[in-house]
Structure formats: structure tokens, C-alpha cells
Amino acid sequence: MTEFPDDIFTEPEPDPDTLANLGPLRALAGVWEGKKGVDLNPKAEGPERREFLERIEMHPIDAQTNGPQLFYGLRYHVHIISTDEEPTFHDQVGYWLWEPATGLILQTLAIPRGQVALSSGHAAPDATKFSIKAERGVPSYGICSTDFLEWAFRTDSFELQVSVDPDGGGWSYVSNTMLAVRGRAEPFLHVDRNTLVKVGEPKPNPMLLISRGVPKFKAHGFEQPSAGH
Hints:
mainly beta
């Protein structure tokens, strides 16, 4: 028995103000930096502990619909460098999504090592703590990796726990990724954690700008087309 309506085509009319409809994700909107990140990852000689600096940008997008399903969300970019190396340590892009009707939270994740994931969880609109999870092999909220990663560092599950300071002092996370490392009898728990403080405000989403009188092309970041085009 499905929880979804028989009418799969009729779309609701969304509110143009995404920030006002993000539920627990509202606290994550903005530009954030964390300087006390810790990463525990597998190496040939054993677990390695690395410290890192992190910058996360999360800006609201226009509401999205799947027929009757309505999401409000944030587009995000995570950029991490380690304290002892110059190249990028980790880069990640995706979306945080909130479905007000059900309390569903989604995170899409893509990293440039050839891996994507869709994680899910549920929370109340005013929650200050929530978690999301994805598991390898499931058809809905799962993990997809390159052939090499499947062979050498298979990701079996991913869980992210988020805690928001209710007094406005930022937010923190702990991510737990369970890996099956080739040649190792036991699974490896890859842990990342950090605390973020706000360094910038979120940009308004295009439909909110349009509702305030900003021309359509400018609101979406395009140059105004010339006459006749």
C-alpha cells in the first residue's frame, strides 16, 4: 500500500520565499567556516588522523516539485583543506531538501572521486538535531561508486548527524562512513567531525527576488537579452 496520492501530476503552488519554508534546514543557510575538523581514514599502515579547515556555502534554491511532492532546499558546496598540505583535501556539492508535508530531509552528495549518494531522514520543523543515512544496494536512498571504489574501498553505509546551537552559535556534524577495505577482515569506520560558525549570509532565491520586483533575467543571474532576442 502506497502513501502517495493517485494524482501524480497536479503540482502545488509554492511559496517564493524558500528560507521561510526550510524547517530544520533554515539554520544551515549561509556561509560557514570550521577550523577544528578531524578526519579518521584508512591507510596501509593503519588509521590516520588528519585535521582540516572547512568552508561550506549553502544558498536557497527555488521550490522544486515532483508532481504533488514539494521540496524547499539549499544548494551547497563543501571545500576542505588539511592543515598540513596545500591541495584540496575534499570537495563536495549537492542539495539539502526539506518536504514540509512529511518532515522528510534529503541530502544529495557528489564528490569528484566518482561517488554519489542520496541520504534521507525525518525531523520536526523546529528540530535542532537530526540525522540522515544512505546504504549501499537499496533502490531509493543509496550509494553509487566507481568500479575501483567498489573493489578497493566499498562504502556500505553513510550517516550524518547534525546538531544546531539553538542560541545561534553555529552548528556541528559527525559523519560515519562504513567502509569495506580490500584485504582487511573487519570493516573500517571512517569518521569526520567539525563545528561551523557563520561568516556570510545566504543569497535570496530567484523567485523571492522576482516577487520583490527584480527582473526575471537578473534574478536568475542572466544578462538582460537585447531587443529582438
